[in-house]
Amino acid sequence: MTPAVLLIADISGYTRFVREHATAADHARRIVVSLLRAMIDASEPPLRVAELEGDAVFFYALAEDGDVQAVADAVRRQIPRLFEAFVAARAREHEATECPCPACSNIGGLELKQVAHTGEVAVETIGPFEKLFGLDVIVVHRLLKNSVPATRYVLQSEAAERVLGPPPVEPRAVERRREPVEGLGEMEVTVYILDGDGGAGAEGDDGAEAGAGARSNTSSAAAARDGAKRHGAAVDGPPGNSWLGRVRAWLRGSA
Q1: 102 pLDDT band (50/70/90 cuts)?
Q2: Cys staple from 55: which of 11, 71, 124, 178, with CB 3.0 to 4.6 Å?
Q3: Whole-model pTM?
Q4: Side-chain-facing half-sphere of 243: CA atoms under 13 Å
Q5: Where are the domains of the chain?
Q6: Mean pLDDT score, 10-39
Q7: What are the beta bridge partners of residue 11?
Q8: Where are the alpha helices (DSSP H) in the chain?
């Protein structure tokens, strides 16, 4: 097992967005894929993509030399960057589209929350993919199902709070809470609630609704090249077996 920082960037409001805009499913999918792409492009090592999970990107950063604090400091600096990438992509899509379909005219129903946890993971290679295993992987995912009545926030487990400290964002409120975690009892968490421009309120599986976005094909391609260079991936030719190449290939196929 290897010490790791786990971070899930989850699009709030995705379930309702897809449900309410089924007649514009292709556009809804394109918007969500663009938001996921924007966050992946904005990330850099030591963050890596573990999985794309429909409406979320599951990132992880390994402390292979045991220096969890150094890894945590690097991850902490990227938390505001993911918010910025999401908001910028959302604004570009909103400004660029003239489509009157329900999906394109209601991208303001999407927002972003980030959930962080630290612990230990095992990384197994299955074919061309890397898969994370361990109790802490389960914990970070179950913390997504929380009772926070907001749409845009950072939630950190007690373990994550110890090494990450307050994220470099400007919260309008900070709350210490005890959240029930299925099968594991209650956990202490700290929630940094941010102002959003799309409203707030609980709604279905996504917890809450607000904001949204995407990006143009031209800017996406440029950003993808920049992101690939930061991660040390080749930017020309086939994606090969690198993790970033596989992710980018999936995104291209979904665009």
Answers
A1: confident
A2: 11
A3: 0.76
A4: 19
A5: 2-254
A6: 80
A7: 112
A8: 14-20, 25-42, 68-96, 102-105, 135-142, 158-164, 217-230, 243-254
